[in-house]
Design brief:
Blueprint: E1 2-4, E2 20-23, E3 26-31, H1 46-63, E4 71-78, H2 84-94, E5 101-106, E6 116-123
Parallel strand pairs: 4-5
Antiparallel strand pairs: 1-2, 2-3, 3-6, 4-6
Helix pairs in contact: 1-2
């Protein structure tokens, strides 16, 4: 098992959370819409949050010599299912056809002012 870490994505200093793990031919990661430099949530807008989530995902996958083209499974967590349209617009900019398996789940709350969080599995 190999842990992936890059300064181009937010870290979780003080928390028992890693940026990503590569195991065999798979990479596992989850990201929130935090700015890598400040650690702050980038916006209150779900589309802008999704954009930052994917910027973070791209940075981590790049550090693992992979890319969004290699995503095989995604789970999208939103605090308001009505935001899914905005999330999908951004999602399609980063994840092209053929689209990977995906589910979307509405949750009661995410840490801080987060409206969108995404976890993925990608091929290494």
């Amino acid at each position: 098992m190999e842990h992936i870490d890059t300064d181009a994505a937010p870290s979780f200093d003080g928390l028992p959370i890693g940026q990503a793990t590569k195991h065999g031919e798979s990479i596992y990661l989850a990201q929130s819409p935090r700015d890598p430099e400040t650690g702050e949530v980038v916006s209150h807008d779900s589309g802008e949050q999704t954009e930052q989530v994917f910027e973070n995902i791209e940075a981590i996958l790049s550090a693992a010599n992979s890319s969004c083209e290699d995503i095989v499974k995604a789970t999208v967590y939103v605090t308001d299912i009505d935001d899914l349209g905005a999330v999908n617009e951004v999602y399609q900019e980063y994840v092209g056809e053929p689209f990977p398996a995906r589910c979307a789940v509405q949750v009661d709350d995410l840490a801080g002012d987060i409206k969108v969080e995404i976890d993925i599995v990608a091929a290494a």
